[in-house]
Amino acid sequence: YGSKLSSNQVSQNYDALNDINEPPVITSTAIVNDNSTVSVTFSELVYGGSSIATSTLEVTDFALSISGGTATLSSSTPSSISISGTTIGLGIPLSGSADGDELLTILPVTDSIFDSQGGTASTTQTSNTVNLTPPNSIPTDISLSSTSIAENKSIGTTVGALSTTDSDTLDTHT
pTM for the complete prediction? Predict the structure, then answer.
């Protein structure tokens, strides 16, 4: 109280009050239909290696785990990595077939992922899970509403309507 702050102290206070250098966080995850890859999007560009380094991320910078369902992981380390801006593609070392009840969790390994300011990604995240996709099931029944057509009908006349019984309710059959 009663003393002047240096420009460095003013800057530090401003940063602290406005939380300027927030660490990177996972903002979303998405999985491809065949469960081979999960996309993890961060709040900003991220790097691997040591703090304030701009080294490329590696698979060992991430840890995977699965809970529920029938599929498991053959390793907690992703099988591959690809980087496109703030989105990181991670190969999933899946063992067995997913039934859709599996919850995949993606976490940064402790002190392994950083932003350009040296902010460390926490191992506690909130947008870092995604359910695996169950396999597409074949229809259990296919039927045709009519099996005959009157003689001398013009070309293109509808014979009947095709219908299916399929547990995958969003599937279409033509």
Answer: 0.71
